[in-house]
Write a structure and sequence with these properties.
The structure holds two protein chains of two kinds. Chain A is α/β, with parallel strands linked by helices. Chain A is built from 17 helices and ten strands. The chains are: A alpha/beta, B alpha/beta.
Chain lengths: 410, 428
Amino acid sequence: MKKTLCFYFQVHHPVMLRKYRFFDIGKRHDYFDDYVNASTIKRVVNHCLPMNDLLLELIRRYEGKFKVAFSISGMALEQLELHAPQAIDSFKRLADTGCAEFLAETYPHSLASLSDTDEFENQVRHHMKKMKELFGQTPVVLRNSSLIYSDQIGERVAEMGFRGMLTDGAKHVLGWKSPNFLYTNAINPKLKLLLKNSRLSDDIAMRFSDKSWNEWPLTADKYADWLSDSAKESEIVNLFMNYETFGEYQTAESGIFDFMRYLPEAVFSRGDFEFLTPGEVIKKHQPVAPLHVPYPISWVDEERDITSWLGNELQTEAFEELYKVQEKVKRSDDEALKRDYERLQASDHFYYMRTKLFSDNEFRRYTSPYDSPYEAFINYMNVLSDFILRVEESDRKRDEKPETRKTKKR
Amino acid sequence: MSIRVLMFGWEFPPHIAGGLGTACYGLTKGLASQGVRVLFVMPKAGGDEDQSAVRIINASDVEMMASWTEWEKYKENVRFMEVGSNLVPYMSPDLFEKTVSETVEGKRASGKISYGNKFQFSGKYGANLMEEVGRYAMVAGTIAAREQFDVIHAHDWLTYMAGIVAKKVSGKPLVIHVHATEFDRSGEHVNQEVYDIERKGMEEADRVITVSNWTRNIVINRYGIAPEKVVTVHNAVDFKNSEDTAEERGVKEKVVTFLGRITFQKGPEYFIEAAHKVLKRYPGVRFVMAGSGDMLAQSIRRVAQLKMATHFHFTGFLKGDDVQKMFRYSDVYVMPSVSEPFGISPLEAMRSGVPSIISKQSGVAEVLKHSIKVDYWDVDALADAIYGLLSYPALAKVVGESGFEEVNNLKWENAAIKIKKVYEDLFV
């Protein structure tokens, strides 16, 4: 049996907040920076369209033998629809080949899986609806924001009917075990787990253009040799990366597009691997063991944990306040309110509040639009304060409706 | 072999008017811990200075030499040093006590200085400052001829002339240390004489140390000094003498504090305008402006005009324990300086666990991470930061606690290591 190579790309862009001062609270409800959002998404599209074209070219050239998977957040899709509809068309063309699988995720790329509300389930359903609408696919595999995963989250995902989920092959969870096999959720074995191979993924995503790396320059042949070497003791190699790798982190001048153009050929000529999508992986392979993940992991930082989003008191405070109003937002029939609520949940807002990397100046790709986490927090809380006022107002109005009043009297 | 430094300062604790003396104290102690021997010269020593780390020479006790040719060269310069009107780095002129002996002054004017004469220095800042600066330089020459040392280190413009003379007399390398420039003190209305002395000092120096990159840029761009000669060594802070005692609060409202000289440089008007914006939305807060200065009257008028005098208070000049007390009384500390070479007061606030907001136009902004930074002119951003710290308890807690930890890790030893490196590079 051939080994499996599984490419998965993440596409996400939050709807950025504008500078929202405290004197705006109660007065202005436009929280988002339309100009910045439009220009950011247009810049991103300039990088992502060439990669889409290349993938389409490869899928056609290898007549269905080259395959990839995507998860595109609802935030990214909304902004693409608005500012760059040609990118949506391009993704649709990829979907039409049958060789691009679209995974489920939370619509706003949120941390809802870490709250005890049913917001997570709602957002995943919202996202699935969008996938069906745009790409005609009903996802069977889920990918949570930044590959956040725990036994409990996996159990929820299994209960929702998913059969597969992506997460990180975090060393502190795997121990001596290899990420290059299929695992299952520790509570519900029906849910199969695909684990990111960090070394081989990051060779492309992080190190490709790093001239101080002793393997630079990386050629498709060299990389295919590494894959062949790993094939002896593995079944699946999961290459999970951010889509911005192509053209943004690794610029066109670095040769990343040429590398990707010749990689399939290099892989096929060695004969060990075939390309499959996550949905196919869980059908083809048998899980080797349950994976115990009592505390949430992610694909971020050395620690592979969630402290980048919920690691300090600012973040937990904002998170708690945000989910306190969930029930009331759900009850509301105000569409604008619901839309804003999803947007405010994007994990990025919490990431900007992180303080834990203050002490080291290590290279960070993920830059914050704020000068400091404190400014990020102040801005977010100002917006959230106004949002909560709107929620209370909407809830009060709903209670005043005649039928509700009747129920109360009884 | 340990390096011996002849250091010229203007003040040294306990007799200080501003941050310069405190910085000199911390720095000399740090240098001592690095095995550097410092001979510290100041115009008027009180005799009660802490000499555990340095030997202090009181310039008022130094007898002038009879045959000092260098003086001839410099008396021209000295004679032109007229009293300037805004030469008041720290204190108001009324605090200046004239203690210069008239007889000595008379002899200086006629150029007749003979062996055995001493100058009396006030060691303060005021109307006769320029004359003192000149006489201090003369005494410096005498000391330089008498003492053994490897390098000369002069702090701020008041001592640059002394440093230059000592260099001419001894031939030893000169390091000048810029704690502030005329542009910080006076904005664009610089006093030409002070500027000239500053630039002369920087040009004559073999190395220029600046307390921040903010100041380094001013030295390079406004004084035309070669960048490779200018090195930034950030200040630190020494809290050994401050004790923590909880303060009973008399008011239930939160307190937002400005503490510093009420002068152009410190940006008091931005604090007032921001206070006005915050009060409109958040009535449960009081603002305090502690300090005095030439913009005090105008500040009081503005507060009255904005009709917020019941929530905006002036304390006047605070000294000693009252400063610490004020910090402990505060919930938020604000330093909206227009141009601040370093700025030690936010560190003192943070030491008391008070979250601080500082202007980006300050040197201290380069070293602090756990503080909220705004442009001094961005009153909206300042008001927003104040409101955030008042309204979101998690923010005040995190900034306060992280800031406390951060400020306790700023050590003079680290600054001293960098300065020692500057000295060593001169001997190569």
